[in-house]
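INFO batch 0412 | record 1 of 1 | parsing
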Amino acid sequence: MQALEVVLPGVVEPEGLRLRHRDLPSPAAGQVVVRVEAGGVSFAEQQMRRAKYYDQPAFPFVPGYDLVGTVAEVGPGVPADLVGRRFAALTKIGGWADHVLLPAADLVPVPAGVDPAEAESFVVNGITAWQMLHRVARVRAGQTVLVHGANGGVGSTLVQLARLAGATVIGTASPRNHDAVRALGAAPVDYRDPDLPRRVRDLAPGGVDAVFDHVGGPGIVDSYRLLAPRGTLVSYGTASTKNDQGSSRLPVLRLFARLLWWNALPNGHRAAFYNIWAGKRRRAAFQARLADDLGSVFALLAQGKLTAQVAARIPLAEVARAVRLAESGTVTGKVVLVP
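INFO prediction complete | emitting tokens
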């Protein structure tokens, strides 16, 4: 079987991404071949293109953090009835292709009748949002949370899940996206407003019970100061440094040091850094937790309780256009590649 895939050869503009065909080996024991129906363009790939992702592999490689597709072939030891069924997978790399070889244990079932692109928009975004909300911050009904980037893929999912949990949500976004944020059920605040902390305080005079911050940089201090007593700051990225020159690791290490210092303070606040791959060394437990959490998100999607935010569906062969759009900051939700 031949696979069409996208290769990231180095630090290039989106137009420097290359397409290639390669022979895909038959699946070995425990493996499957998945015919990809939808692959996401996430912030992780945007950082990898700049060599800014914390632990990305050496160039060249095939990007693609997550996907949804149908099993086309199974290897020895894998049930034959998986063929023809739709699954999602978290891949980290390798997903930007029309066929991929994956461990069968990494597959999470997609409910029947759910559109592949809509399911794709909730794979990495859904796992991230669900685990930050329920496993890290443990948000409860009646609480108030602040979501930075509320119009983005993770942000829009966080808003919806927090509202379903009974929380009040304040979401930062550019003014052009405020209507979309309101439609999701959050009170929008302009993220560029120099008085942003005061705007949030006007909406939550006692502070917020949780802040979800993917930006990092100096603004994370404001996020921490906005916490209510016993509130939790969940940091999950350093988007503010995406165009900086220099080490991709230094901003993350500085952030870790700051969070550790805050946790040492006797003020009752908690600061955590969320990493979707935490615990992967205990593979079976990691896979079970991932399947449970993504399964919960997919169930809400199938029940119509979550609305997929698919910004665009773009052919794999037009990957440069997809990356440009995803990086433009002008869309709500996730750009999806459709092989």
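INFO post-check: The longest helix spans residues 283-302.
INFO record closed
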